[in-house]
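Can't attach files on this board, so I'm pasting raw text. These are the components:
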Amino acid sequence: MFELTQSIAGGLVPASAPRALALGAPSLAHLSVLDLAVIAIYFVIVIWIGFYLKSKSNTSEEFFMAGREMTAWIAGLSFVSANLGSLELMGWAGSAYQYGILAAHWYWIGAIPAMLFLGMVMMPFYYVCKTHSVPGYLKLRYGQGSSTVAAVSFAFMTVLMSGVNMFAMAEVMKIVLGWDLSFSIIVSSLAVAAYVALGGLRSAIFNEVLQFVLIWGGALLVPILGLIEAGGWNGFKAKLAANIAKGVTANGDYTHMWRSMGHFADNPMGIHWTGIVFGLGFAISFGYWTTDFLVVQRVLAANSLRSARLAPVIGSFFKMAVPFIVILPGLLGLVVLQNSDGSLMHLVGENVVAANPGAGLHSYNEVLPLMMVRYLGPGLLGLGITALIAGFMSGMAGNVSAFTAIFTYDIYQPHIVKHAKDEHYVLVGRIVTIVGVVISIGAAYMVMHAAGIMDYVQALFSFFISPLLGVVLMGMFWKRATRAGGFWGLLIGTLTSISLWAWVHFDPSALRYVAISPDAKPMAEDMYRALWSVCTSVLVTFIVSIFTKPKTLAELNGVVYGATKLPTEEPVPFYKNEWFWTVIAIVIFLALNIYFW
Amino acid sequence: MHNSGISIWFFIGVLLTIYGAMVLGYGIFELVTGHTANVILANLHAPVWWGAILLALGLFYGLRFRPGRNG
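---
Top answer:
Structure tokens for the assembled complex are below.
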């Protein structure tokens, strides 16, 4: 059985209250034997899958690319699930509590157009050239230099991201269950190392699909019961309006996405609609969903071009639905979470919690666990916690498997051991998996000292991903782009991003120049920084290409629009056609934005 | 993935079946004994219907994609 400690009710923690094993903080819940059994069974299944798939991961194509045998559904679910890690579950629920439904921008305009663009426009080039990675594509298009720059920066980013996931999971386990940080990190990393080293990408994909189902099975009840308690969506809005009128909730428009985007000062995120549309909707989103190898790798593992194109489209439908289990619980927390005396609970920033130890305060990021503890009894709570663990582990596994492929294919093979037997590279892949996990553990401990996970991740995105987008787009759609253009575009774009970040970091007043408004806040800075770095990489690629010698058309076959003959696909009924589902996805995407305008 | 060994959907079916049975079992225990968990909306007996849904889905996928059966 579980019980709420004093702290969840907002009161002081008595000396006899259960203490956390790590930092002396009280846990939110106590798990029953049933809950622990649910968690243990998950680990057993995960390891079972790893051992089962070991026999199917003997060649490099099997280990790194899952044999390119994934159906559109599996690739599509894995594609979305690889992104359903720490940020999704904890961070965005907390952001929804803090900023309202504005947080859903990251799921809709910040994902759907890019996912559909990947499937319909870019995927044929990735798939036809049979590349094994995004740096692999750059090698075909621009040569080894650009590929190596991208590979090194991506490898660096993935192990850091894996560390972020590890740390986030350990934090959740500490906050919710009182588990020791190091215990959580070691257990999760051992499990991830085991199943990825054994089964390679196929194992990571299997676990991502498994995790996706678990997330819905474990977390969907929270918004359902939350809506029932709040009296439905209209009841929620009425209660929220009443709380704002009484002054117990901060004033703001929590239920509309675009109305407050006219000026930086009109919304709590301090963002302008141009930042959302061009920074988030283009620079960050397209960069992430179309050039981040972590997600593209899942689609490259599809069993046919049609499956590869359908996978992101299938994924887009689920992506549009994810706010129901992430954003909605955060919003509902605004009206249903209460202290023991019946008063409304107020969540605060991490810095406030840290500054008031023992005050029983909870941070925004705890809203999802708080909601789980509120509604989920024995068994169901274990399922919810397992969903969180699965999400974090899947995020780690996704990063580690991508790191392994990039390091082996794009760093080790071209620069260290060029011609070895296939088994050699598989062995290297297994070893690098272990090494990647070890580095991730180090990164996890490093992240503990970072100001905030969200800022950290956003900064990483714009450092590496956005410049890559500019170079990939130029290479894929402009025949004149040259090898030197791609290399310098990528390098200077990345340096621009890092420089802008450093400028604002050391001189916060510079934010008004980077985000073009004195009212801009850090999130707006991330968006504009990403936008400027894309523009820089495109501009540099263009200018350098104009003055250098282009490749011949024959050399560009398979990698550039206009120089590639795409294979004709067998006709299928309309309901199996990727364009049909793309149109449906666009209609739903527009309808959601209009409804919550 | 359906033609080369065990499908991922089978693993999912097994997991959902086990979880569904555990949650449903606890829900029935609550119903029979009247000892409900100290959570909000416990009167809705979510473990019963949510556990039943998980169990049904698990059995469907477990049987539909069981090893040896052509997908």
